[in-house]
Amino acid sequence: MIWETIRLALTTITRNALRSFLTVLGVVIGVAAVIAMVTVGQGSSEQVSADVGSLGTDLLILRPGARMLGPGTRDSAPAFKLSDVDALRDLSVLSAVAPVVSTSQTAVFGSSNRTTTVTGTTSDYLTIGNWDIERGRGFSNIEDRSGANVCIIGETVRTALFGSTDPTGETIRIKSISCEVIGYLIAKGAGTFGQDQDDIVMMPIKTVQRRLEGNQDVASISMQLAPGISTARAIFEIDTLMQERRRIELGEENDFSVSDMKEIASMLNSVNAVLTGLLSSVAAVSLLVGGIGIMNIMLVSVTERTREIGIRLSVGAQAHQVLAQFLIEAVVLSLIGGVIGILIGLGLALLAARIMAIPFVPSGWVIVLAFGFSALVGVIFGYFPARRAAQLDPIEALRHQ
Amino acid sequence: MCAQPIIELHGITRSYGAGEALVKALDGVDLTISTGEFVAIMGPSGSGKSTAMNIIGCLDRPTAGQYRFNRVEVAALDQDQRALLRRHYLGFVFQGFNLLPRTTALENVELPLIYKGLPKSERGARAREALRRVGLEGREDHTPSQLSGGQQQRVAIARALAGEPMVMLADEPTGNLDTARSNEIMQLLQRLNREEGLTIVMVTHEEDMARYASRLVVFTDGRILRDAPVAAEGAA
Ligand SMILES: Nc1ncnc2c1ncn2[C@@H]1O[C@H](COP(=O)(O)OP(=O)(O)OP(=O)(O)O)[C@@H](O)[C@H]1O
Ligand SMILES: [Mg+2]
After folding, report:
1. Is B44 in the pocket of ligand 1 (CB under 6 A)?
2. Could you tell me if the CB of B50 is within 6 A of ligand 1?
3. What ranges do the domains of chain A cover?
4. Domain span at B110
5. What is the Cα–Cα distance from B28 to B223, expressed in whole angstroms?
6. DSSP state of A80
7. B84: which chain A residues are within 8 Å (Cβ-Cβ)?
8. pTM above 0.95, yes or no
């Protein structure tokens, strides 16, 4: 009899193709939307945490001009000098200090070339920025100080100029400089703002100042907090030192600023939290829409279903037999919709993860939750009207308008 | 054939509504029908014929009075037991057919057999045979919307016959049929009644059809006005 009941349920599903399709659609929409949204949300959270981790929360950046987030300086504020860097090195609250000058240049090797960012700095920059050398070496002390014609290249530049061959020991040309590639960096991938961090050529700062920029300016200074030092204390000491060096009177506005990576990290986290919240509410609305769809189609068909129940009762069906049939029907439709919805949801999430370059993190509980909710709606609105009808005298069910 | 009472109605009342709007569709009906009888019920529209049939068919319950089917007090049966009674003893032809929509004639006729627990192959054979008997060969795969009113009525008759019930309750089974078809159906019922001892209770508006029965009960205003054997042998 159970097989017979399942068969009855399946016949009803195929016979009422439109109704079945709409019910399944409701489940699919709800389940797919929730799974896609939440999976994308979690992927981007994970990406943000990874980004924040790679930034190094102990990083401080000193820029000329008043406080602002992001790149750019105030024209009026004078740039730093290497002597500022030396002065900062004497602060015990900092464990590493690196000057930075960046300029956009075209690097040429043989017939290949690539327009990239040339960063003039010292080997401390590698420590501060969590850069690791894949092959070759970093700048030596002498190269740091003398401005030798050597460079370290990022993965993107390496691929563009050398393909898969080993670049170390080769010579690339940047403007008038012929410089030897002494090493290349382990790829970091896209940065927090989507920029390609590996599109970089690092050179000793003096080389860049002299041969590319033609001045003694240091655009910004990257610093690493010494272990156990609070950001606030370090910033206070840096401020004090720089106020003195730049002759800023008491009460006058600083013409430099120190930005703290924790600030950027917390901003990113809060942006991400807003994004996740937004995605979750869209998902919740979709789930609701799907649920209302299922509910509607079930309620609209109540009259017809009640008559069907009346007919079945009148030829001798018992209430529980009719209900088993309706329950199986609701469960089968929910299962079909659930499986399709899960597949579509995960597919969309995977696609979005690829496009947005974020990790694909499907989570079991979301799948269970979305599926459970839709199935519950299907069962409740399929089953309970049927149960009410099955309790009627057959003639009442048949007369149902 | 020992004629023992199978349907016994005592003081059956069925009222709808309450107070001012109270309608007594049946008002103290006493009726006893024995096995092997072929009873025709006549009466004006609204006189309670369908109401009585529904109660006899255990599709509805009386407001007052006593109904015994096959010596069993129906009021003492629960919902599931009444379903079993319908399943195993009764075949019902509704005034409004009540076929499942979007379902073929064959599947409609198979429906009672599913609940009787017959295997699929036997169901198909019996349903086909029942459809053949009502002259619907070749229409097995038509759905109700693809059939005329008369054809739908005959599917409903086939459905009642397919279960091989002990009692067949037919509410105007020929209401939508032409005279020739009506006579064919009545002859079929008469044969089943005479040869297989099928007890039949049939509502009709036509004297000609009532003549096939062995007994005529006339309703007015929810009461039995007249109850007498049919004098002439009906064989039009
Ligand atoms: N569900 C109901 N609610 C209220 N009144 C009803 C209901 N069903 C039947 N009645 C009333 O009961 C009375 C008897 O109805 P019933 O259907 O038994 O008549 P009938 O003899 O079968 O008529 P017809 O020959 O037209 O089929 C009618 O007056 C009808 O209005
Ligand atoms: Mg009637």
Report:
1. no
2. yes
3. 2-50+266-399, 95-225
4. 37-58+85-229
5. 7
6. B
7. 316, 318
8. no
